[in-house]
Write a structure and sequence with these properties.
Largest sheet: 5 strands, antiparallel
Helix content: 55-70%
Order of helices and strands: HHEEHHEEEHHHEHEEHEEHHHEE
Radius of gyration: 56 Å
Number of helices: 12
Bound molecules: adenosine-5'-diphosphate
Length: 457
């Protein structure tokens, strides 16, 4: 069964049942109250009429009792009330035979000071019988018969209107529940169609965020679509950057290999002097060294697993001392002064990798620094991190390039970079090393003034 039909049926049936129940209870209560009130009213007026009849019968003994009762009956006819006089179980007066037949023994046995009342149905009519015995003579009784058919008629009338009202209400409820069930299923269908589009790879779906439960579902779906979009874009950019990496790598390898091949063929074929042969062999050696260098750096770049690291508390002064020795020759070539301001005693790190990172930064700085200039290394600790800064006063880096130089094989000035043997891998290796230490690398720079590379642990 369709959901819309289920909702429609359950709403209509349950509201119909509740309407019938409510109406039934109200009608019943109303009827009971009316009957009770009628009974009280009848007994009350009967008690005084019975007294009057008793007094009249005693007073006018010369008159026929039937005549006296008839007088009362004619007077109270307007109230649908008539009376029967019983003398020693002889019913002295009868108006209608069937009404007399309804007088039971229980009614005839009524005592004085007691007002007995009985509801009796006679064919389509309803009567209230009230009876009492005379105060001075218990063998004489007076019975009042009140026609209360109007009460039942009123009740039937109310019942009829109730049924009409229920029918109209049910019709309304049916229309409303049909509209509600259609609306609910329409929203579900809308979401189902959206989900189908998503499953087919169409992520341009935006569900309407209403304030009901469907709105919550829509928010969840929108969030899901947004997340899928983000992940997809991440995957696309990952695939793209891998492709760029492979393209750059093949280019970087191809250049020295072509050079090597060219010189080797030349040496083999041409009739050249021993001096030139030595010079070309040196070129071949240089390019081979370059390939080896790229290979070593690529190994470092693919060094990703933290388990391969040896992160322990290291003497930081010793780390700096060793770096100074490793790069002194390079700095001396341009007479560059390395100023170290160190306030760190120790650092939790993999010593070899951190030395590679700091070395890379100082060598980069020296590559772009003018002869006789300075490179400053500041090492200190703030409230949350340990910081190493490498500051140079060289050419600086443009904002556009700052975002790119951490990518593998990216070089700002290719020709210049190749001059000192750079393959554009140094900074991406630094970034990788910092990520392995749960740290990061930041760059601040101004064209023409210099740069600051900050390692944050
Ligand atoms: P490379 O090995 O070619 O130096 P890097 O990844 O270390 O590769 O650096 C990428 C590029 O960033 C370099 O080609 C260089 O142009 C630029 N760069 C690096 N350090 C600095 C610096 N301190 N000042 C200006 N440019 C720099």
């Amino acid at each position: 069964m369709k959901l819309s039909v289920k909702i429609f049926l359950s709403m209509s049936i349950s509201s119909l049942i509740s309407c019938i129940l409510v109406l039934g209870i109200i009608l019943n209560k109303n009827y009971e109250t009316n009957i009770q009130k009628e009974n009280e009213r009848t007994v009350e007026s009967f008690s005084s009429i019975a007294n009057n009849i008793e007094e009249s019968l005693e007073k006018y003994q010369n008159l026929k009792s039937q005549d006296i009762i008839n007088t009362y009956n004619s007077y109270y006819k307007k109230d649908d009330f008539q009376f029967v006089y019983v003398n020693n179980n002889n019913i002295d007066y009868s108006s209608e035979e069937n009404l007399i037949n309804n007088i039971s023994d229980e009614i005839l046995d009524v005592k004085n000071n007691v007002f007995l009342s009985k509801f009796i149905q006679d064919e389509d009519n309803f009567y209230l019988y009230v009876a009492t015995a005379f105060k001075n003579d218990v063998s004489k009784k007076i019975i009042g018969i009140k026609d209360i058919t109007y009460l039942y008629e009123t009740q039937s009338e109310i019942k009829f209107y109730g049924i009409v009202i229920i029918s109209i209400a049910t019709l309304f409820i049916t229309i409303i529940s049909f509209a509600i069930s259609k609306n609910i299923t329409k929203q579900l269908e809308y979401i189902a169609n959206g989900a189908k589009r998503i499953s087919k790879g169409d992520y341009n779906v935006n569900f309407k965020e209403t304030s009901d439960e469907f709105g919550k579902l829509a928010i969840a779906f929108n969030k899901m679509v947004q997340d899928i979009n983000i992940r997809t874009n991440e995957l696309i950019s990952l695939v793209e950057s891998k492709q760029t990496f492979i393209d750059n790598l093949s280019h970087e390898m191809n250049t020295p290999l072509t050079t090597i091949q060219g010189y080797a063929e030349y040496i083999e074929r041409a009739n050249i002097s021993p001096e030139k042969r030595i010079k070309y062999l040196e070129y071949i050696q240089q390019e081979s060294k370059r390939i080896k260098d790229i290979y070593k750096k690529l190994l470092l770049l693919s060094y990703k697993k933290k388990t391969d690291l040896e992160i322990i508390n290291q003497d930081f002064n010793l780390i700096l001392e060793e770096i100074k020795q490793q790069i002194s020759r390079k700095l001396n070539e341009k007479n560059i002064t390395l100023v170290i301001n160190n306030k760190l005693n120790s650092l939790e790190c993999d010593k070899t990798l951190v030395q590679i990172a700091i070395n890379n930064l100082i060598i980069n700085a020296s590559n772009i620094s003018k002869p006789n200039s300075q490179i400053i290394v500041n090492c200190y600790e703030n409230t949350t991190n340990k910081i190493i800064e490498v500051i140079d006063f060289g050419i600086g880096i443009s904002k556009e390039n700052i975002n790119k130089i951490l990518e593998p094989f990216y070089r700002v000035d290719k020709a210049r970079s190749r001059e000192y043997g750079g393959a554009g891998l140094g900074l991406s290796i630094c970034k990788n090393i910092m990520e392995m230490h749960n740290g990061k690398i930041k760059i601040e720079s101004e064209i023409g003034k210099g740069s600051k590379f900050i390692l944050i642990f």
